[in-house]
Amino acid sequence: MDQQTFKHINQILARDSKSTTYKFALLRGTIDLIEDNSPFIIVKNDRAHFPLGLLIEKWLLYYYPLVAVPQINGQAQLAFAAQLQRLVSFYELRGGFSAFYNDLKNKGIPTELQPLFLALVRKLAATITQMPMKYIGNSIYNNYYGIYQYERGPSKRTTILDAEYLIRNFGTFSIPLDYYEAFQVLGSFITGQDAILFKWAEFSVQASRQTLSVTQVLNEVLKSPITARDIAESKALYKSILQTDGKVRCVWSGDTLTRYDIDHIIPFTIWKNNDLWNLLPARPDLNNQKRDKIPSPTLIDNRRELITHYWELIFQHKKQRFQKEIQVALLGYQTQSDWHELAITQLKQSCDYLINSRGFEGWNG
Predict the structure, then answer these.
(1) pLDDT (tens digit, 9 = 90+) per residue, 327-355?
(2) From the CB of residue 206, how many other CB atoms can be counted at a distance below 10 Å?
(3) Residue 137 and residue 58: Cα distance in Å, rounded?
(4) 3-class DSSP assignment, residue 51
(5) What is the pTM of this model?
(6) Is 27 exposed, middle or buried (0-12, 13-18, 19+ CB in 10 A)?
(7) Distance of CA 6 to the CA centre of its chain
(8) Contact criterion met (CB below 8 Å) for 137 and 147
(9) pLDDT in tens, 270-281
(10) Phi and psi for 257 in degrees, rounded to 5?
(11) Which of 32, 114, 246, 251 measures 20 to 30 Å from 218, CA to CA?
């Protein structure tokens, strides 16, 4: 295990495309199995091997309470939504989630539910192995199954459908030993059980003598002072300044614009910053193309003349606010009159850090 493995994990979390929650469920399930110290985990040939059935069981438990919660962007449903919804409906009047878990772990799935259960777990196995396992890590290795590998196994007939059946009948999957060791060290922080905010929330619940819940505290801890209205005000302010200057040019292409978006140089989703220096006019199609990507240091260099032009324009119109914001965000202790070059250098360093250390996707315009 080396530093590069940790960087790759960071990159997977930040950069791998995510149109569903499947990749989150795959990583969470893998980490939970490692945290459980499952005796079924076997290390051989520089890889750690797990029964796929254990992961199927985790997915059943993750998605059962989420069956009515959107898990895919757009109108599509989970690949296994129909079967899972029917299973949830079956248990609604039979004890709910706890009753299902007891059947799965101890008693076995009732005979009348077995055909549905088989269809569900087979669909889960196909979804896991053909979707997130195939694509996860693609942003790093540029090929399928770059991290996870799946091996089919022999099926064993049985009249009892339970957790053991899943372990015995769905083959195995494996991950590189470096990732296994990294998940052993960092796993609980990635899934949140040992994350600072989660521990903070747990302490607050105890301090309240259980009058609060972890969910309530997390909602408060995660609140940001920057709201959508603040964003709208910043954009409106910048647009009014641009209108007095006349010609508006796209910061990323240099094209003269009659219609434009106000783009966050460093995306708002990554750094909730509505400073005026971070808001620049961009062609709508380029703004949409950039989205949550980080402009590369090379791109910043190529566009420095237009970036500093807009900074100077804002400085002229909103001197006090602009000075305070750029001093805190980019200049730090530096107070030289040639602040333009210092700010560009720090902006490039920040973008380089986000791309190469934090793992966010770079954008070259």
Answers:
(1) 999 999 887 778 999 999 999 999 998 98
(2) 10
(3) 21
(4) strand
(5) 0.79
(6) buried
(7) 15
(8) yes
(9) 888 889 999 999
(10) -120, 145
(11) 32
